[in-house]
Amino acid sequence: MPTVQVTDLKDGDFLLDVREDDEWQAGHAGGALHIPLSEFVARYGELTEAAPQDGRVHVICRSGARSAQVTMYLVQQGVDAVNVDGGMQHWQAAGRPVITDDGKPGFVL
After folding, report:
1. Quick check: is 61 catalytic?
2. pTM over 0.85
3. I want to staple 109 with a disulfide (CB 3.0 to 4.6 A). Which of 26, 75, 80, 99 is the partner?
4. How many CA atoms lie within 13 A of 9 on its CB side?
5. What Pfam families does the record tag this protein with (predicted)?
6. Among the options 18, 29, 35, 61, which is catalytic?
7. β partners of residue 33
C-alpha cells in the first residue's frame, strides 16, 4: 500500500478526507476535499473532477484505516493515490492546522 507521512505533505498537495460528516465538522485540513467513506463510490465523480489530472491524491481519515481502503480502491482504478499514515491524529500531532468550515480552530474527533 502506498503510504506517506504527514511530514511528507507539502502545502498545495491534493488531500481527500474520507471521514464522516461529524468528524469533518469538528475539524479538518484546509483545502481538503471531503467525501465520506460511506458515500465514496456514489460520489466518485466529485473526486475525478477535483483531483489534479497528473497529480497524486493523498487520502486521509482519522487514523489511516478507512483511508487505506479508499487508497487501495483508487490504485485499482489507476489513480496515483497514497494513504496518509496516522491520519488526522498525526496531522494534528504534527502541529498542522485543523479548522472548521468557518475557518476557526477545530479538533480531531
Report:
1. yes
2. yes
3. 26
4. 30
5. Rhodanese (PF00581)
6. 61
7. 16
